[in-house]
Amino acid sequence: MSDQPLSPRPEARNPRGFGDRRGRDLIAERRLIARVSAVYERWGFEPLETPAFEYADALGKFLPDDDRPNAGVFALQDDPEDEGVGSWMALRYDHTAPLARYAAQNWETLPKPFRRYAYGPVWRNEKPGPGRFREFVQCDADTVGSDRPETDAEIIAMAGEGLIAAGLAPDQAVIRVSNRKLFDGLFEAGGVTDPVQRLTALRAVDKFDRLGWEGVSALLGEGRLDESGDYTKGAGLSPRVIGTLEAFLSSATQPGLDRAAVLDAVSGAGDLGAAGAQALAELSAIDRALSAMGVSQDAVRFDPTIVRGLEYYTGAVFEAELLLPTTDDKGRPVRFGSIGGGGRYDDLVARFTGASLPATGFSFGVSRLAAALKAAGRAETDVRGPVVVIVFSDDDMKTYLDAGSELRAAGIAAEVYLGRAGMKAQMKYADRRGAPAVVILGGDEISAGQVTIKDLDAGRALAANLADNAAWKAQRPGQRVVPRADLVSTLREIIDGSSINVPPVS
């Protein structure tokens, strides 16, 4: 016997911020992608797929340390190249930076403007939280090569249509819009010229909906200690500039104002400089375009507290906020807030080419929206599993396998139960799979050339209205015996007539 110590068994656990998805949850995400992608295509956007990894310098806005660029992203070092120095690669943080790289690499051959959509997982090396993951799915649409404000308006209107396609009623979400140039003007007037200080201040304002003015003012000043004990260093703005920002935000966030009235309130809040005046002109053009497309004031609102956290935004910014009440698994209210966002990023492609190329886009947080719908009791309930063929005897396995093959050939999802449990456990298995029906081919059915089919949906509905077990046994709800030749047609009738009739998932 070996004296070597046994290796400890690994603990089966997920890395923090990474989740497993199966069955119903995964199908829910795929349906959201299919529905939103259909909206994008209807608006004339073509699909584009870029690799999961990009060279880290393409994601440079997130990399404060050139020697170890893994803050904010998950990075690794590639094999040394010809010059003997390995290049850092990082999992994509979003779909926007890869688009900028692709546009710079292929601009000469692309239609201009270039309209594309993309979906797939992205990865962020950040602190996870409720509904916030390190790996999640996004579904984006962007237009590269147009500086017209109407392009922003089109993206916003399309995003609103995507929210409806995802299953939200018009009053269950709102898209809030602003323009980063408003703050550029305020900073210029206040003498705030340091880019890092400006960005820190913008990130503070971006937390206005979550922290309120008290929390934001602390972050605009020296800093803030949060509930967990973590300290966030502030922007270090002067009290005068902080007071100006407070007056600006309070005048611009009065309830009940339509888009034009918000712009009037903002313009009268103080000196916005040339950049602020340009922002107001762009927002006014967006408002006119939205109105021309029939987008209501309730669906899209102007809200200058929206700044978005990413450094690359240069103009209009927008954020989709979920208004649907949500609760956690213990029934406690939980706020999801943003379920998507975007804006204009006219300088991102210039990182590769040196020449400014205007661009704007919007991104749905598919995983976040799916989690929010589930928390609101709006999870997909019409997910249907396969028909299950019950197995009684190894001697009749060919009969069961033939039945499964016949159903699949007819376009009906079906599986033969290949465990070793008895009939009761097999019925429970079929119920857990969400099967519309089970096929029973016992010895009596086989010898008589018949098949017994249990319509599980009908059985559940009828059983709920029967008072006792004896009545259930007498009526055998949802059960029928048909000739074996009628197997396919009977199951198709059951599936097509079910109250849970599921469209195919693209």
Please state the overall shape, judged from the principal axes of the Cα atoms.
Answer: elongated
- From the helix content, strand content and strand pairing, which structural class follows? alpha+beta
Q: CATH H level of the largest domain: which superfamily?
A: Bira Bifunctional Protein, Domain 2
- Separate helix tally: 17
Number of strands: 18
Taking pLDDT < 50 over at least 5 consecutive residues as the criterion, the unreliable ranges are 62-68, 499-506
Oligomer: single chain
Estimated share of beta-strand residues: 15-25%
| Biggest sheet record | 8 strands, mixed
Roughly what is the average pLDDT, rounded to an integer?
85
Helical percentage: 25-40%
CATH architecture label of the largest domain: 2-Layer Sandwich
Question: Going across the major beta sheet, what is the strand order?
Answer: 1-5-6-13-12-11-7-10
Distance between the termini: 57 Å
